[in-house]
Amino acid sequence: MAEHVPSSALRPPQSALASASTSGSEHVLANREICRSSSLEVIRDNLGAYYYPARVETLSRAADLSTSLLSAVRLNYTTLGFLRFGSETMVDPGALGAYHVNVPVSGRIASECGDRQVVAVPGTGAVFTPRDHTVLPWWSDDSAQICIKISKAAVETELEALLGHPVAGDVRFDLGVDLTTPTAASWLGVVRLLIDEVDRPGGLLERSATHREHLEKLLINGLLHLQNHDYLDALLSPEPPARPRTVKRVIDLIETNPEANYTISDLARHAGVGARRLQISFQEALNTSPTGYLRKVKLEHARQDLLTGDESVMTVAYRWGFNHAGRFSTYYRQTYGESPSDTARRSRGF
């Protein structure tokens, strides 16, 4: 089997996920452990329950699964997991019925989807499509992967919103994905954030379905912009600006529900145009982006609450959709020249 591995893939990627090597893998979804040091039958059954029914076989007579580990969590549109066998293994799930991304963190995994082949290593991942036969004929004994299953409907709905028109059939991604680029680093940052959040007991994802859905959509949107596929050129190509009424439609939505965490695809879907077309329109009409305008409106409401109320800064921030205290403070200071806490103290006469 030919190995389509760029030279850069032989070096571990400089990303947060690179720390999830065999020695550090206990920290990946540590609170979502499904099975450990289990028999092949137990691993196979759990893979079928969380991902896909598959033929799973060890390739060594002296197979040792004592270091095997499967952690996984099922969300609205995605299933996130970590898988290590600890022994040379073959996995054959066939046609997946979903899109799927494997992010290797150690070892080497031969990966096939239809007639395409790649050897996945740290720095080179694999993106699988729903209808082609998928098989991983060889996992090295030291290999481990982050495994991301993504709903077929979610990927295609997101792409249609970004393009502003329906897509016909499956999105055909290239199989091998270079995870050492700056674009990949951004996407891996979203993956890490989502993994950290789902593994945090009592975190925002447990309290807010909206926050969970927002992060999942960011992951899907990022994949569509990261990996080559048959719609990528159309997604990235410049388009003529939308008519002013399209901009007004989005402004009306934002002004009506300023607390919502709309993504660019949400706004484009509401406007009935592609995301890039909407961005160009906003830039020409208002000299800002749709998400920049949304943030401006959120900040205005947050400032008004800080000036007139006695709630904590974080209570106000969360109300208006700012889920990261540091970013809220940064945006606020850039806009108003003072920190949110300074505004709150001033309003109370301190």
Structural account:
The protein has helices at about 40-50, 150-165, 180-200, 205, 210-225, 230-235, 245-255, 265-270, 275-285, 290-310, 315-320, 325-335, 340-345, and strands at about 35, 55-60, 70-75, 80-85, 90-95, 100-105, 110-115, 115-120, 125-130, 135-140, 145-150, 175-180. A hairpin with a 3-residue loop joins strand 3 (about 70-75) and strand 4. It has 13 helices and 12 strands. The strands form 2 sheets. The protein has a 7-stranded antiparallel β-sheet, with helices on both faces. The chain has a 5-stranded antiparallel β-sheet with strand order 2-5-10-7-8, with no helix packed on it. The protein is an alpha+beta fold. The chain folds into 2 domains: about 5-200, Sandwich (Jelly Rolls), CATH 2.60.120.10; about 240-350, Homeodomain-like (Arc Repressor Mutant, subunit A).
Q: Please identify which CATH superfamily of the largest domain we are dealing with.
A: Jelly Rolls
Structural class: alpha+beta
Radius of gyration: 22 Å
Domain unit count: 2
* Percentage of residues assigned to helices: 40-55%
Please report the number of helical segments. 13
The biggest beta sheet reads: 7 strands, antiparallel
Broad shape: globular
Query: So, CATH architecture of the largest domain?
Result: Sandwich
Our estimate of the beta-strand percent is 15-25%
**Distance N to C terminus:** 71 Å
How would you spell out the order of helices and strands?
EHEEEEEEEEEEHEHHHHHHHHHHH
